[in-house]
Amino acid sequence: MDFISLTILFLKTLAKFVGGYGIAIIVLTIIVRLALWSLNVKQQRSMKMMQTLQPKLKAIQDRYKSNPQMMQQKMMEFYKEHKFNPMSGCLPLLIQMPIFILLYSALISPQFIAEAGNQKFLFIDSLATTLRATAGISNDGKLGASVGDKFILGPNASVYIGDIVKSAKIKDGAQALHIVGDLTPGKDVDLSFSLDNFVLDKNLKFSELAKVDKAKVTVTNSNIRENEEIVFTRNSDDYMEATVPTVPINKSWHWDVIILIVLFAVTMFISQKIMMAMTKTDNQDPAQAALQKSMGTFMPLMILATFIVIPIPAGVLLYLITSNIIQIIQTVMINKQIDAELNAKKDSVDDTELNNAKKIN
Questions:
Q1: Does pLDDT of 145 surpass 60?
Q2: How far apart are CA 113 and CA 173, in angstroms?
Q3: What pLDDT, in 10s, does the model give residues 50-66?
Q4: What angle do CA 143, 218, 115 make, to 5 degrees?
Q5: Contacts 24+ apart (CB under 8 A), 273-281
Q6: pTM for this model (two decimals)
Q7: What angle (nearest 5°) sits at the alpha carbon of residue 310, between those of residues 309 and 314?
Q8: What is the mean pLDDT of residues 123-151?
Q9: What is the DSSP letter of 247?
Q10: How far apart are CA 346 and CA 339, in angstroms?
């Protein structure tokens, strides 16, 4: 079983316990964020340490500004002396990136679309829909289509060997299916795939492959999230082919996804503002402060523009929004905890100095 199938299986298991895929995605986000809690604590401690070290770092930069190589060496020695790793703040992000990519691949896959693509959650009409896609009517015998659409084979098939029906797997579903000729919405389309795309295992042996007459496979229009079970028949060139009627569709904007994208930008902006406020110091370099301010303002806008161009499923946006909200809560809580520890340490030092002064007097 591949990672995408495992992800969908995990979400399916969660959905059974919590009552739906939308809540399952939120629970998954909470699990991920809690698992990264200790790393986030270390990240924020590093950022706090950077505040106290900033004046000394600036002094090193000013002293060796004419010798960049020596400056780099002195800064590395300084980091080592204070046991500070400037890359530690990137670790939580690096760990989350594979999870994001995996969730994106799972929610946009034919398996998830077939399993739960039409599930609603709150104001979201479909967890699998993207910003500009029209959900076609699945299993009505016709494929909704527009020029440029891509059709994908599902991972499972039923193969017919005479009167025997066997289950089989298909590999490279996204590349296996080919459109024969041109795709004209409203007219029949010819589809085909090679027998080589069947996975040979205990369910379908090589000796049986040559006897396959027909195969029933789910075909998905990846642009409109529509599934149709299509029966392919074998031709003389060892290709499975089928002729399927199509109906033209017009793509439209989905306001629920637009709202999700805006919510993501807002929560990310708030998160950036809180992080910048936490790292702001009186001794901060003005150029660095200006750069941080620009990044905090324009980064959400850049990602917002990216999400308009790249088709991100609503379920992935739900994950990102929930992650941002938890990040905001975590940042505030951990920052208060660190401030309390620093204040307690400062009070302890002050009490010690006061007691020493009294002894001297």
A1: yes
A2: 14
A3: 666 666 777 777 777 77
A4: 105
A5: 274/328, 274/331, 274/332, 275/47, 275/331, 278/44, 278/47, 278/48, 278/331, 278/335, 279/47, 279/50, 279/51, 281/51, 281/54
A6: 0.62
A7: 115
A8: 75
A9: E
A10: 10
Say how far residue 228 (Cα) sits from the centre of its chain: 27
Strand 226-234 with 178-180, pairing: unpaired
What does the block give as tokens for 131? 């910003």
For residue range 216-230, what is the model confidence (pLDDT) as tens digits? 998 888 777 678 889
- Whether the CB-CB separation of 177 and 219 falls below 8 Å is answered with yes
CA distance 169 to 175: 15
Give the CB-side neighbour count of residue 222, counting CA atoms within 13 A.
19
Average pLDDT score over residue span 68-72: 75
DSSP string over 127-162:
TT--TB-----TTSS-EEE-TT--EEEEEEEEEEET
First and final CA of the chain: distance in angstroms? 76
Asked if 247 and 144 count as a contact pair (C-beta separation under 8 A), the reply is yes
Residue 293 CB burial class (10 angstroms; 0-12, 13-18, ≥19):
middle
Pull the structure tokens for residue 213: 């007459």
DSSP state of 248: E
Q: Note whether 140 and 134 are within 8 A (CB).
A: no
Q: Is 336 exposed, middle or buried (0-12, 13-18, 19+ CB in 10 A)?
A: exposed
Do the strands 178-180 and 239-244 form a parallel or antiparallel pair, or are they unpaired? Answer: unpaired
pLDDT, the chain, mean = 75
Distance CA 144, CA 131 (A): 18
Q: Which two tokens stand for residue 204?
A: 């379908």
Amino acid at 292: Q
Distances (CA, A) of 46 to 54, 208, 213: 12, 62, 64
- Asked if 229 contacts 143 with a C-beta cutoff of 8 angstroms, the reply is no
| Contact between 115 and 4 (Cβ < 8 Å) | no
Q: Both tokens of residue 150?
A: 């891509």
**Residue 64 per-residue DSSP state:** T
For the record, the structure tokens of 317 come out as 């946006």
Identify residue 77 by its one-letter amino acid code: E
Strand partners, 213: none
Instruction: Determine the length of the chain.
Output: 361
